[in-house]
Amino acid sequence: LLRGVMMRVSLFFFHSTALMALLPLLARGLHSGSAGAYTLLLASMGAGAILAALLMPYLRHRWQRDTLVLRATTLMSAGMAAMAVAPNVPLAMLAMFVVGLAWITTANSLSVSAQLGLPDWVRARGMSIYQMAIMGASALGAALWGQVATLSSLQVSLLVAAGTGLLSMV
User: Fold this and answer.
1) Tell me, what's the pLDDT at 170?
2) Of 27, 101, 114, 127, which is least packed with CB atoms within 10 Å of its CB?
3) Helix/strand/coil percent split, the chain, to 5
């Protein structure tokens, strides 16, 4: 069980980190280098995350964690793809709102799975490994997707990350 959770959290953060790593460049391209666009995009993601946190009891009651993770990963991929092609800040804000919903839902669901899968006597150590998996996958993902963007474009990098992220979770 725990290996599966670690694999899923690593895959999710490896792919989804593409958006966070490339977001400053996307924001600059959307609004002529304005820092305001970046702030609006992050705020939209945060608003989506807050709504997801408020809806989490309902979502957990309605779907099993595996189903919730798969659906949220699908939303994450859709949001990343939308960000890749968003022509303006308002549409990008909507995409980032969806990303916030998906990001926190997936992270929370996998965290709960990890905590429930660990015995009491080793839970703290296991969760530190869980956090290491997130941070390591995020660092590797940011480096890889940044390199893909350098060799191709921001849009190609995000679209490939979105597609392969969804495929890897399925």
Assistant:
1) 79
2) 127
3) 90, 0, 10
